[in-house]
Amino acid sequence: MSRPEDTLPPDLFYNDHESQKYTTSSRIQTIQTAMTQRALSLLALPYPSLVLDIGCGSGLSGESLTASDHTWIGMDISASMLAVALDRETSGDMFLADIGQGVPFRPGTFDAAISISAIQWLCNADSSDVSATGRLSRFFEGLYAALKRGGKAVLQFYPKNEVQRGMITSAAIRAGFGAGLLEDDPGTKNVKVYLVLTVGAGAEKGGASDVTNVVRGMEGVDVIDERRKGRGGGRGGDGEGRKGSKDWILRKKEQGKNRGKVVKADSKYTGRKRRPAF
How many domains does the chain have? Predict the structure, then answer.
């Protein structure tokens, strides 16, 4: 059975018929509510907060946010889904937007963010001039900026395979997040994957030196931060990931390509040290 994201882009797949069908399904409503409650339990917000609902659809996840006394703003690429949300008089503010083009809010706007069954759509390039890596980079960089210092995000998604899972988690880590993965019902066809992200919380919470400390304290979440692998102990160290090394230069060039910048082609001289001149 083909996955929805393999058939059409989300704004075309979720037309008027599919949007109504999705929203009125009692099975979908039950699953959506359970996953939103799971995401909220991982966020563990201590007080009513301003939450971004990424891929809010027809507002099913927003209902759980409202019931938990949170104020929320939603964004979705499907006009039909948002029309259903308006018909249902959903309480949150929502707008039409493509998360693959970024998260268009002022820096530090949100306390937290959630997403239910949405971000796997970013892994599909709908045309030859659009790359999945570029869309993922724009999304996670925009989300990182939109969250307050110490903010968290929980993004539930259905990865097609390990390659797709790696694409998503790597893009989040490159954007600066501390990251962890949680699987509910692992090894079954009902497995649900949650990507738990944190923005550095400050030195007093142990977050400035290693933002993954916040993730590491969450029950059942495996830390997947790979930023220090193969880098000789982190930034500024003597490993091959230090600033100015060939590994660092290649990584920066790849980031530039993903952002649509023009970068010089690699050659045998890339990253080569010049001899001292006297």
Answer: 2
